[in-house]
Design brief:
Length: 396
């Protein structure tokens, strides 16, 4: 029965972590999977999250089912983080469903789109998160790419992106990274978002925003500017939110899908559809991570502590960007200043696949096959080793 199944190659991102674990070198450096790391190279549970967990366990009297769309408190809090406290003035148009992580939210959103319009084509940025294409494809969408990153300038190929979107047929789905673009770290600025919003509205294209790093780029509000601007410009959109990185609850699988509908009547139908689809996928989302996030956001003292911790994470990543850019510029003799202007956990080094392999095999430095590095994995202690090694493989 199962003989037809073939061996699965290592996941381009998770496979890097598995290979890193096996390396016994003292000088190994993990720049692979997108998890935040502190000064000691650890991925901590934020203090505010730990405190909320302790309070929750002390107070929880039941683990009875909630509903297929999850915890209403969590949904409302995370929607307000994404859309702003006024929900972009469109509260009645919003349908919310808690989902198992950002990936669960993307999958739920893709199935919702496929239910609305079977065989829809979703356009993703070139490049995009390695899991976007298989994930959206598995949910039934056809996936194509739009131009995004310009390798020659390490910036956005904005004119090419706009001309491409401006030629798409109506009702095409356009997957956009709300902030902290994965894998390049190269975001659109506010003026560019405005232009994109106008093209999407004019062509009647459906934006599907993926926001996995809110607060790790600039700050909570500026990182969500894209969503707020689009919610004021286009009638309908989807947002998949992940709480994995900004709350440090990775393995708790905590996310939200928000569907903004054209009007309140439509929204009242769409929330039922989200519940129906969730019921066929996981019946109900896991509770713990969402209950903790709800508690952090709803308790002023915990919320303040979490915002301070998140700000520290973002500042640390941005200072590592400067350190790495300067060191790479010095060791390679090429200008790496562009790393400083990028945001979030990632940048992509201009390396060929064999150079990435050489970094791993000869220098014990691990990164995704396309040269994507997790900036949070760099530290003052390993930065010189990283920069020297990158320079060595670039010369070879
Ligand atoms: C990443 O891009 O490294 C993270 O989003 C983790 C993952 O699941 O790929």
């Amino acid at each position: 029965m199962f003989e037809s199944l073939t061996r699965v190659p290592p996941d381009p991102i998770l496979g890097v972590s598995a290979a890193f674990q096996k390396d016994s070198s003292d000088s190994k450096v993990d720049l692979g999977v997108g998890v935040y790391k502190d000064e000691a190279g650890k991925t901590p549970v934020p203090r505010a999250v730990r405190r909320a967990e302790q309070d929750l366990i002390a107070a929880q009297t039941t683990k009875a089912y909630l509903s297929p769309v999850g915890n209403p408190g969590f949904n409302a809090q995370v929607a307000a983080l994404a859309f702003g406290a006024d929900l972009a003035g469109r509260k009645a148009d919003l349908s919310l469903a808690q989902a198992p992580g950002g990936s669960g939210a993307l999958h739920l959103g893709a199935q919702f789109l496929n239910a609305a319009r079977p065989g829809s084509i979703a356009y993703v940025s070139d490049p995009t998160w390695a899991n976007h294409i298989p994930l959206l494809g598995a949910a039934g969408l056809k996936v194509e790419k739009y131009p995004y990153y310009d390798n020659a300038t390490n910036g956005v190929a904005f004119d090419r992106m706009v001309s491409f979107l401006d030629a798409l047929p109506a009702d095409s789905v356009v997957v956009l990274h709300a902030c902290c673009h994965n894998p390049t770290g190269q975001d659109l600025d506010v003026a560019q978002w405005q232009t994109i919003a106008e093209v999407l509205a004019k062509r009647r294209l459906l934006p599907f925003l993926d926001m996995a790093y809110q607060g790790l780029g600039e700050d909570l509000d500026r990182d969500a500017a894209s969503i707020r601007l689009l919610a004021k410009t286009v009638p309908e959109l989807l947002v998949a939110v992940s709480c994995s990185k900004n709350f440090g609850v990775y393995r708790e699988r905590t996310g939200l899908l928000a569907v903004l509908s054209a009007n309140a009547e439509q929204a009242s139908i769409h929330v039922g559809q989200l519940g129906r689809i969730a019921r066929t996928l996981w019946s109900m989302p896991p509770d713990h991570g969402a209950a903790v996030v709800d508690r952090v956001l709803a308790t002023p003292e915990l919320r303040q502590e979490w915002v301070a911790e998140l700000t520290h994470m973002a500042n640390r990543i941005n200072s590592l960007r400067s350190l790495l850019a300067e060191k790479l510029t010095a060791t390679t003799g090429q200008d790496f200043g562009w790393i400083k202007g990028q945001r979030g956990m990632f940048s992509r080094l201009p390396l060929r696949a064999e150079q990435v392999v050489a970094l791993r095999e000869q220098h014990h430095i691990y990164m995704a096959p396309d040269g994507r590095i997790n900036i949070a994995g760099v530290s003052p202690a390993n930065c010189a080793h990283v920069a020297d090694s990158v320079a060595a493989v670039m010369r070879s």
